[in-house]
Fold these 2 entries.
Entry 1:
Amino acid sequence: VFTPSYHLSRPGRPPWLLVAVLALAMPGLLVTACSRSAAGGGHGTPGAPGTGTAAAAPSPARASRAAARPGPGRRPSSPLALRLLSQAAQAAVATTYQGEEIVTRWTNGSGSVLVSDIWHVSGGQTVTQTLAVGAALSSRPYTSADDDGQQPEGVLGVTVPLVQLLAAHYIVAYAGTGSADSRTAQVVEARRGDGSVAARFWLDDATKLPLEREVFDSGTHVISHDVFIKVRFSAAGPAAVPAQAGSDDDPPGPWTDPLSGARLRALSGQGWLVPAQLPGGLSLFTGAQTRTGTGTVLDLGYSDGLSVVSVFEQRGDLAARLAGWQPAVVAGHLIYVAQPDQRSLTWDSHDMVYTVMADAPAPTVDAVVGALPHDGPPGFWQRMSRGFVRLASWVNPFG
Amino acid sequence: MSHHLGDQLSALVDGELDGAERDRVHAHLARCEPCRAEVADLRELKRRLRTLGTAAPGQAAMTGRLIALTGPGGPMPPRSGRRSRPASGRRAVRALTRPQPGRPGPSRRRRYLMLGTVSLVVGLSTVAFTVGGGGGAAPGPRITPPVEMYSVEHAITTGEVPFDPPATPAAPATTAGAATPAAPATAAARASAASLP
């Protein structure tokens, strides 16, 4: 059999040389193409955040001990301010109150506002019913409880664990007295190491209940402003809410109590990703699990005292169509963002679905997303192997 | 051509003539240049044929050409009349020594075999690389993140009210809450938000 290559080869230049060059060059070209696509992709390995695949998750108790120790060379927090914040966290649980909470957040240049009615009985349940802005009562109520004070439940994000983390990551200072909701308030500030204000709290002078909170980004722009207004300290509960609460929905399973550090470490040995730290100075401070119809979900809570990021992990892959989610590129990775608030992000990697919910500045969210695992393009040999397996499956008459 | 010896030359080369015949042929060759040339050609042909079995690599092409001459469908040398004609013998020798394009020899076959093998490997590798792209097999369940359920749990973590996007379709009510014996969390949350100008 003659082939054109023989006739085209020049005298003295054997054709096998051309064949050898082709055989050597083809994989090289493929590798080059593969590596180019990989360069545009991203990580490709289940990595761990800049801090490594940390299986060592500190317990909230350990975090609280660390919170009591200011870093070397750092200005210490004001004991008065720390005490006021601790009292505020306790008051959110121990005091009976009701009022209206207005939460305003700015994300990526757009703002969202949330209005909720809140009723709380001392040491008992908290009933939260969210109202649509400019509309009537709109939503089903949400009920929660925190009898032992260990659940991170509070008002305006002032809870016991978060106050401990706040003291560990920021300089807490007393800023005098002020006014909120027509009531005298004690003002406490959380400042960064450079002296800029990260957050400001107004605590009711009489009960220490948080009445107002402002959170600033590093550029001193307000990114969150929460107020608790129309506050009444009485035992009168909501008339209509208890009849609705929990009446029509049978939960698939409650979340567990906060998991201990040992339990979280054990989970990291069972294939779950449990980093102790995330970018932005976020520390793991709580975790819980629940079972759903599609498997177990692990929730990991990270915070520096102000920003809070929840990372939900579930084994599996994202559905082919995600209603209510839009694809977007965050930190160089193609993920899905829940519309319209863009506060929830999800993607899958290595048979694990990650969903991030964040109350944090956009750069912090980007860094967190970038630090968690993402699937990159497959390597050359992995791709070749997968291709040969597929080819074999196509020609296998018994397959 | 009648004065030439014809078949007797072949018999001479093959050693088939007896003494008298051989002497007569030798006497003719002494005075006939064309017959001497034909004898020389026939001897050369015989020598080459004898060395076919132990052909050196350089002579492999000759073998191939010889096979091509005798094989079916190949270009046969012109034969008009008796095979002992001197012209036909010379043509046969020239045909053997002339390059014969279109007929591969054994070394060429090896090259083509190698070329075909490498082409097959490269082609298969290219196809495998192409079809090996895309996602891998998906052994796990297909999941749509339950935003409301996560939002409530996130609210417990943050100590704030659930802030779940209203555009999320009404998924089956999900849950969360503190699971304490005194007051287990029961209800689902559905938050509303409005965009600011």
Note: Chain A touches chain B through 121 residues (CB under 8 Å).
Entry 2:
Amino acid sequence: MEMRLKIGETKIELVSAAADLKMGVQGAEERFLDAGGDVDVSLRVAWGDLRGPAAGEQVFDAGSLWQLYRDDTDYLFRFTSSHLGPLPYKECRFSADFNHGEVLLNRDYLNGDKPIYPLEHPVDELLIVNLLAQGHGVVVHACGVEDSDGRGYLFVGESKAGKSTTARLWDKAGGARILSDDRIIVRLQEGRLWIYGTPWHSDGGYAISARASLDHIYFLKHGKENSIQRLSNAEAVARLMACSFLPFYSPAGLDFSLAFFQRVIKTIPAEQLRFVPDERAVEFIRGQQCG
Amino acid sequence: MNENEQNGPRPKRRYKKPAVQSIGLRAEEAVLGNCKGANTKGPNSPGNNCRPIGYCVTQSS
């Protein structure tokens, strides 16, 4: 059994190695299913015995959910939950370029009768983060909007900054397309910067497989009135780094991400946006573009 | 005569002492150490395709 996904131009193929391991997706991920053609990432999915210790040296500990190990050639992610039990419920081995790999699932913790999404979050996002860091782009904590005139806006902010609110306001205003209310892929394609929707949405459920040009960046902040404040290039780059999902265990990946954001900020206007959560915020932005 | 001599000396920019500006990073969000949401599908979701344990006690935004 095969499954194919396309997220931010990255095509991923999953192949189940076991007849009793059915794969499937529900919700936002369904919108990112893809047909045939070439693939960028090929992954084998199987049941695995995860009772032994992880191979290699631990290089990163993300807390309760996952740890990363590295051996001579591969990256190994292990996912554990104290609620499930002491053993990992999933292990993902990726080649150094993240183009090939294997997902092993712990049968004891999973019910094989129903379809399983082997790349269930955060695996899919970790995979994309690491692939993009090979020189392609970055996943940003942001809401992405394409307005009716084709302009693409990136509204950047950590939790509670107003990304979901912004998505709802633009949706309600009409004429705009919401790519995502929480995670946006920014990447360079054909010499231009683009923003892509992702499956990793927030409360609003905004998640579409589409892209828009990147024309303006706003760092969100709640305010008593709508206003913008120009930022220095250094501050804008620092804020993008702080609101992105980066491979902190990869010096080369961090170097690329920093250089990528420097290029973004040299090209795209970036400002802090203080906004009030009503329709005037949309009018304010549209007015800025006309002015 | 070069251009500088034609236009006169440029006024010196006032020295501004370098200052460190801190930009906060929320590590718990940045490392993807949490589940994406309560309605996540897959092994995370109670009653879906794993045992109904709902282990996702902390959610990312």
Note: The two ends of chain B are 63 Å apart (CA to CA).
